[in-house]
Design goal:
The protein has 322 residues and is of the alpha/beta class. Helices cover 29% and strands 19% of the residues. The chain has an 11-stranded mixed β-sheet, with helices on both faces. It has a 4-stranded parallel β-sheet with strand order 12-15-13-14, with helices on both faces. Helix 1 crosses helix 5. Bound molecules: threonylcarbamoyladenylate (TXA) and magnesium ion.
Length: 322
């Protein structure tokens, strides 16, 4: 792999130039930061897998400037897929649809389906509009680790490996997109994410949720262990866990309650305001901060299982599975 003097900046022209010449750029989105390359250029796609140390069985999402571009990349779309796209794009929804041959097996890991997403972040939208190709972009973290929600998270892990990080500030949602596969009139949720399932069922009625793949997942966000910090994470009743572990150096990931910070204890409160959207925004950054401390274990608690709490609990569960 080539070594780079990685730059962080807001220069869209520069980002576009790098992408046009087959290079990779980390890009901001409203969900998490991505590691982007020209989706139609096998060399760029291969470089994404190399930089991320990502297994080849894990396919990439195609990012488009506008939903109307889908006609180039997927087969004729069902009314259900149109309805979802028109209601939630641009935004934190990814649709998995039957691909056209122009999309290589490298992007889809051999699947006849391709994942499409139209991000809402203004810098990313301007960048996509300036390009005449879609961007393949996984989250900009090493495989299995916590997704980045600001440019510094990306730099901490991919610094030296890519030329440029387009800095779009903090990701507003903070959780990866919700992935929905649509086959004819059947929608299946493959990953819980930044678009609450309730929003989807309100529009189209009950949907199947299949987010627990194992060895050959159709979405590795489905892997039992994913989005995981290096130190062990345990979920339970915080007061009891803390009382039973007073001698250990622990991290605390609490929803809204504060706990006294001690010499042995580092506390992160996700949402003092009790809002699930606030908790989602802070989750990954808080996990990273705790992971950077010299701790033995992180204690976390379940959030209310509704709205974005569903996706947050999913990430906690997978972090615990390590
Ligand atoms: O919010 C997001 O979706 C972010 C931003 C950067 O757009 N991207 C993201 O990408 O989370 P990644 O690669 O970290 O996770 C994408 C998930 C993977 O678990 C992958 O398996 C699934 O999407 N996926 C991609 N293509 C697929 C396909 N053809 N069929 C089923 N799942 C697919
Ligand atoms: Mg990822």
């Amino acid at each position: 792999m080539k070594a780079y003097d990685t730059e962080i900046g807001t220069n869209i022209v520069k980002a576009a130039e790098i992408l046009r010449s087959a290079g990779l750029v980390s890009v901001p989105t409203e969900t998490v930061y991505g590691l982007a390359g020209n989706a139609l250029l096998p060399a760029a796609v291969a470089e994404i897998f190399a930089v991320k140390a990502r297994p080849a069985f894990d396919p990439l999402i195609l990012h488009l400037a506008d939903w109307s571009e889908h006609i180039h990349y997927v087969q004729e779309v069902s009314p259900l897929a149109h309805q979802l796209a028109e209601s939630f794009m641009p935004g934190p929804l990814t649709l998995v649809l039957p691909k056209r041959p122009i999309i290589s097996d490298l992007v889809t890991s051999g699947s006849p389906f391709v994942a499409l997403r139209v991000p809402q972040h203004p810098l990313m939208r301007t960048l996509l509009a300036a390009l005449d190709f879609p961007l393949a972009a996984p989250s900009a973290n090493p495989f299995g680790y916590i997704s980045p929600t600001n440019a510094h998270h990306v730099f901490a892990q991919l610094g030296g490996k890519i030329p440029y990080i387009l800095d779009g500030g903090q990701s507003g949602i903070g959780l990866e997109s919700t992935i929905v596969q649509v086959v004819d009139d059947q929608a299946t949720v493959l990953r819980k994410g930044g678009l609450p399932i309730e929003a989807i069922t309100e529009l189209i009625g009950p949907v199947e949720v299949r987010t627990h793949g194992t060895s050959n997942p159709s979405a590795p966000g489905q892997l039992k262990s994913h989005y995981a910090p290096r130190i062990p994470l345990i979920i339970g009743e915080l007061p009891a866990l803390l009382a039973a572990n007073e001698q250990r150096r622990v991290g605390v990931l609490s929803f809204r309650e504060s706990y006294p910070q001690t010499e042995n204890r580092v506390v992160e409160v996700l949402a003092p305001d009790g809002e699930l959207t606030t908790a989602a925004q802070h989750l990954f950054a808080a996990m990273r901060r705790l992971d950077a401390q010299n701790l033995e274990v992180i204690f976390a608690e379940w959030l209310p299982e509704k709205g974005l709490g569903v996706a947050i609990n999913d990430r906690l569960r997978r972090a615990q599975a390590k």
